[in-house]
């Protein structure tokens, strides 16, 4: 039997960080379909994030991407966020959108380019100091397209050197979260392609360097929950970039493509003691054809549903079945939790938190969608890359 009161209490403490870039326009390399009411400034992105938190109660922070969210005064931006009921979360660096980075950033063969990339990363830590953000999220587009193009091992040395310089600069309460990605934009080698490479670098760096698992960044069929279990066991799981993919990384809504996988991941999180403030649960998504704010609300709800099911697993019964080698019973215990309709439970949790039981309906009723369409006229809409 699971303790329902404890499950509800845990669900009330959940925190899912939403990404500033998900509120802006995005698309594929073929077409960006602009939507009405899209934010034009970092402040407007924060206002949308605040709306998501207002109706869900579990999205208290918003991640920044630099330079997409560049402002003159970051402390003022943090204050603006707080006045709207949210805080600024992870600072995401960007060493992939400058002509200088054609052959990479901190792994680039030329020292001047490596320096430029490093300066950007150090600037991101300055921004964290001003915003009060605890996490620097690093993703490198670095890699090669052709065998022989560069020295694969030498690139690892350059990577280690650059990461060490950033690590040195971190404050005591700041962490560096290293993200891996199987491929893209590099097609032959990627300098941080998998959790093992990220883990090896983080291990050398120290306790404040942790691995971040972007659910979209694996080969089809990869057992992501095993990676999660392993990283948690090693004390090296820093956080998630949640999204869904069908083929390659495509930033669809988390839990949309494979809710069962999300449940399995969240089960390992709960089992491994990762459900808490030490693991950052972030969304990293783009909403290309669907309405953005409702899509983000839906994504937050998908994470909540997977978490509720994971918390409902009868771990005593599961352990007993596992110990006695009862394969079918062990599987049945897990599936029972997965097959539970947790929507009524979450509705209760929301009502107990003083929220509407249905966040999407609450958002629709709020009039925010109409208001931003009417008010956000003129100016330059934010897009993926601004
Ligand atoms: C790279 O594909 C990535 O997942 C990184 O987290 C980037 O910062 C983000 O996407 C940009 O959308
Ligand atoms: Mn990501």
UniProtKB/TrEMBL annotation:
Give the keywords, sorted.
Isomerase, Manganese, Metal-binding
The Xylose isomerase-like TIM barrel domain extends over: 66-245
**EC number(s) in its UniProt entry?**
5.3.1.14
A single GO BP term for this record reads: rhamnose catabolic process
**Matches recorded under Pfam families:** AP_endonuc_2
Per UniProt, the enzyme's principal EC class comes to: isomerase
Q: Which GO terms describe its molecular function?
A: L-rhamnose isomerase activity; metal ion binding
Against PANTHER family, the record matches this protein to: L-RHAMNOSE ISOMERASE (PTHR30268)
Kindly provide the name given to this protein in its UniProt entry.
Answer: L-rhamnose isomerase
This chain is encoded by the gene named rhaI
């Amino acid at each position: 039997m699971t303790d329902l009161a404890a499950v509800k209490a845990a669900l009330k403490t959940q925190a899912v960080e939403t990404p500033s870039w998900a509120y802006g326009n995005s698309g594929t390399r073929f077409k960006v379909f602009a939507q009405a009411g899209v934010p034009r400034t970092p402040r407007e992105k924060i206002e949308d994030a605040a709306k998501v938190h207002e109706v869900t109660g579990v999205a208290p922070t918003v991640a920044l991407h630099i330079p997409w969210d560049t402002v003159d005064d970051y402390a003022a931006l943090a204050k603006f966020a707080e006045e709207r009921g949210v805080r600024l979360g992870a600072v995401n660096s960007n060493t992939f959108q400058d002509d200088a980075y054609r052959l990479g950033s901190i792994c680039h063969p030329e020292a001047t380019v490596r320096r430029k990339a490093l300066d950007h990363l150090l600037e991101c830590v300055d921004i964290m100091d001003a915003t009060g953000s605890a996490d620097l999220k690093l993703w490198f587009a670095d890699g090669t397209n052709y065998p022989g193009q560069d020295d694969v091992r030498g690139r690892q040395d350059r990577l280690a050197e650059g990461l060490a310089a950033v690590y040195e600069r971190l404050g005591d309460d700041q962490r560096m979260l290293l993200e891996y990605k199987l491929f893209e934009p590099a097609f032959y080698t990627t300098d941080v392609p998998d959790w093992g490479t990220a883990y090896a670098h983080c291990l050398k760096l120290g306790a404040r360097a942790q691995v971040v698992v972007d659910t979209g960044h694996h080969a089809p069929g990869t057992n992501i929950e095993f990676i999660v279990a392993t990283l948690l066991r090693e004390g090296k799981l820093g956080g998630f970039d949640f999204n869904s993919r069908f083929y390659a990384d495509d930033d669809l809504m988390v839990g949309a493509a494979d809710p069962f996988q999300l449940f399995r991941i969240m089960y390992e999180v709960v089992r491994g003691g990762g459900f808490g403030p030490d693991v950052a649960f972030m969304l990293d998504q783009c909403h290309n054809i669907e309405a953005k704010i409702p899509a983000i609300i839906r994504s937050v709800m998908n994470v909540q549903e997977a978490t509720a099911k994971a918390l409902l697993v009868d771990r005593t019964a599961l352990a007993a079945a596992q110990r006695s080698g009862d394969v079918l019973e062990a599987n049945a215990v897990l599936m029972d939790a997965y097959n539970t309709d947790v929507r009524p439970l979450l509705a209760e949790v929301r009502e107990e938190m003083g929220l509407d039981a249905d966040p999407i309906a609450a958002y629709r009723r709020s009039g925010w969608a109409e208001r931003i369409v009417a008010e956000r006229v003129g100016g330059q809409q934010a897009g993926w890359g601004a």
